[in-house]
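Components:
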Amino acid sequence: MNLSLRNRILAFFIGLLLVILLLVLALVQRSTYQHTREQISQQLQFAHTVLANELQGRRQAQSALAELIAKDFTLLGEIADLIDSPEQQAQSLSASLESFAARSQASFALVSAPDGRILAGTSEHLHPGQRLPWASMLQGNEPSSHEQLVLQGGQVLHINVTPIFAPRPNLLGWLVMAFVIDDRATQHWAELSGADVAVLAGQPGNYQVPATNLSAAARAQLASSLLPADDGGLLLELQGQQQVAYRAPLAGTDGELQLLLLRSLSDALASYQPLQWQLAAIILAALLLASIGAWLIASTVSRPLSQMVESVRRIASGDYQARVAENGGSEVGLLAREFNHMQRDIAEREATISFLAYRDPLTSLDNRNRFVARLQAALANALPGAGVAVLLMDLDNFKDLNDTLGHDAGDQLLCLLGERLLQHLRAGDGLARLGGDEFAVLIAPADPHAALAAAHHYHELLTEPFAVRGISMTLNATVGIALSPDHGETAGSLLQHAEVAMYWGKTQHSDLALYRAELDSHSLLRLALMSELKGAIEEGQLSLYFQPKLTIASRTLLGVECLVRWIHPQHGFIAPDEFIPLAEQTGNICALTRWVIRTALAQIRVWQSEGLQLKTAVNISALDLLNPDFAAFITSQLQEHQVDPASLVVEITESAVMADPALAMQQLEELRRLGVKLSIDDYGTGYSSMAQLKRLPVHELKIDQSFISDLLSNPDDEIIVRSTIELAHNMGLKVVAEGVETQAVLEQLDRLGCDIAQGYLLSKPLAPAAFAEWLAKCPWALPRG
Ligand code: C2E
Ligand code: CA
Ligand code: CA
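Structure:
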């Protein structure tokens, strides 16, 4: 059973009190009973002594009376006459005895001859001529032997025999007097002693009660009772009342008669009844008071506790308003105060947590969780046919900016951007920062046209520069767009597809990108790969392939271009076109370039030890040039691998140089001073003019393969190639043709004066082992140093 605390306290106190009170009651009852019983026993003992004295006195008085009668001359004369003439005198003696008996209140009186033969008397049972039944009393001289209590004919008789002398010592006969002890006598005794009196004879269960002051019914019950054998105090039940009894042999008998004194225990106890009622009343009152007290105390403990239980339930359901009463300075009051305190703290903390859960702490815009929730709601509430659009805006090169200016500046910039977006937020649109440099806008309802217009609106906000630490900067970002229901019907898929579109947009260097299903397979894989690239470099999943370069005029091998390959443990071969652009966006490209340079230099060292002088080209990205330590890194690596700087060619696209011409220029100058060769890659795909190139400290131009592949069939391409070669030569630059696949192209390039050829005609890029094999069977002359 699950009792409440209050009920348990109540039950305990009342139970305890009840037990104590019952014990006290039982003790009082018991001692009262015992005391009463003992008292009665003592009273009965005392009564017995009183009665014994009384009986003694009475018997002495009767004996004295008998002695007096025995000396009466009239009686003596009549006895003498009777002895002389028995027939005549018996009448007159009997009459005299009659009168004596009546005067002395004897039951009867007799005169017997010295031998015990009855001469005359007033007894109805004993007649002249019979012998006295108490012949033994006639012997002996002791006065006590001449009197006795006997049971005769259902009566207790006090028999007194007195010798009649005529004169002494001539024994004339015996005067026998019988005094009855009857109900009346016992009544007297009862009054005298204050106890009920009964004279008993016979066996237990079958007593004779010859005299008693008790009622007839009590007498009958007593006759059939079974008293214990031993004398003294005992208990018996008489007429529904408990009696204390005292039994003793009746003095002056031969033991067959017993005196029983009785007193009602029930009556004696009844005198204690008012006391017991008072006690019961006190107990009841104590119980009542204790119950009330215990209830009050228990309530002061349990009421706040149950209030607290209530409050805990409310807190669990998110309600922190109701407070527990803080009354009193007791521990309970203290607990209540602490409880309220705790409740307040929890409320505060929950507010913070829910703020953190739904707010971006940096910009105080909604966070991703909140955005997803709102997007879900918008999707659920969208009318049939109406779309919901997600715009995902991601800053370009934010990571480098962060690295260069510091995280504080980066954070400040994000805040400024957040503020600006919020300021120009169109009515009904929802804005959130999803993390990093990613902001999202929710537009509902939306169609593709509206979504693009919105994307344009938000992208335009970036044209105004931001001022961070006194530096004014212009940001660029790519906005990926996904629309329900065409691009996804759940918040998750819309966000994911907006992200896919955004990444695709980055690779295309476009500001806005709308999701298309074709983007997905590639982009998803790429997204996953990006997180793995750094680990891939460390775990040796990358390898360098080598593609030979030919000096056209002499048809001798010039060197190789190093091209990176990623053999992913699950996805297998991944082309550099797949991951290089993403590595550039995530900043992993710098680590990759360093790995490439180290690996390439180690390879040059191996070739040098084999007597081969291969000019080895590595590709670097725009971000590498933005790193002020780049040139220093190459210097240290050249020294470490003991490689001649002239063996290293650094290929760089024109657009990379143009990203930050000043910084790039500085780095390139430094490399050139070192003796490293510089090559402009993919020439012709950008917009840089020859005039701009002229200022760069480079050694060669690589004409993009798109111009070479159709060289023979496309006259435009031939013009471009021819003029490029001429211009480059005028500027003192060597020209490399990429993508040479046929002998015919090679020969045409030879005619046009191109210096170097690279392409499948010689070989595809080869793994180190395959390249070693290719070298062994190489149809071209090898550059041995
Ligand atoms: P790229 O620097 O223009 O490299 C030349 C690309 O043209 C290579 O593709 C090569 O396999 C391919 N190619 C060579 N000869 C022929 C030919 O005769 N016909 C055709 N159709 N293609 C030919 P790959 O290896 O897939 O590399 C693609 C691009 O990835 C490279 O273009 C380069 O921009 C980038 N890349 C490769 N490795 C690295 C690297 O280590 N660092 C950096 N930053 N970028 C790299
Ligand atoms: Ca290249
Ligand atoms: Ca190229």
